Amino acid sequence: MKHINVTLAQLTPKLEDKDYNFDQISKAMVKANKEQSDLIVFPELFLTGYSMGDKLNELAETIDGPSVNKIKEMCKSLSLYAVFGFPELGDNGHYYITSALIDDKGELIGTYRKTHLFDQEKAFFNSGSGLKVIPTPIGNFGLMICFDVEFPEVARALKLMGADIIVIVNANMDPYKEHHYIYAKSRAMENEIPVVICNRLGLEEDLNFCGDSLVLDSWGHELLTMEGSEDVKTVTLPLLSVKDPKMNYVSSRKTDLYSVLIDK
């Protein structure tokens, strides 16, 4: 496909209330379907809220858990792709911050476990062990989660792995709004690849989640900017990576100089 219609669900989840949050997911997906969207993206850990702490063992689900299955049914009934964040209970008994990609037939076609954990996340979650590019009929999806965007190696690796688009589920908070705005644009521009980043809003304990969800084309142009408003919005995103022949970032790399990146 040369373009897809992308919907961002910049909303406020209710902490530890999966029923309420699924109701928001359901309503947003219905709206996306009415707007002829191909893909809807939700924030990081949207299913449960972010600051679960000691209740993680009650709220986390496996990849075939009840909430995931309900979203699969919604995707099938609405012929809609979805990327959403939830706390995953792995087969090994460990917990992960995970994003899931469900296709328009209701099939879970891939998950990604956050590899770069932020601050206190390390006290509750394990890091994922690999990066993911998931092929689909509407493009190859490279998945990232929040803090991952601050590591340029992740986006570059996804680009080299064949990603057509990078989709980032986010739970970014003050005072880091500008960080993710700059990094998301940089990841798009330096890799000449579209970037979709969906953040949340609301307060949890001392955390103020700052929104500013974005859809960026391969030039880093802002096709959709949501700033601080709670809303569900759709935009058409070209998937063809338009390259500047004077730049040639990927082919101009000097890989023999970069060993320090893995040796240090």
Automatic annotation (TrEMBL):
SUPFAM superfamilies: Carbon-nitrogen hydrolase
CDD domains xref list: nitrilase
Any Pfam family: CN_hydrolase
GO molecular function: hydrolase activity
Key word Hydrolase present: yes
Gene3D superfamilies in UniProt: Carbon-nitrogen hydrolase
Residues in CN hydrolase domain copies: 4-239
InterPro entries named in the record: Aliph_Amidase/BUP, C-N_Hydrolase, C-N_Hydrolase_sf
Keyword Hydrolase belongs to the record: yes
Keywords associated with the record: Hydrolase
Protein name: Carbon-nitrogen hydrolase family protein
Organism: Lentibacillus salinarum
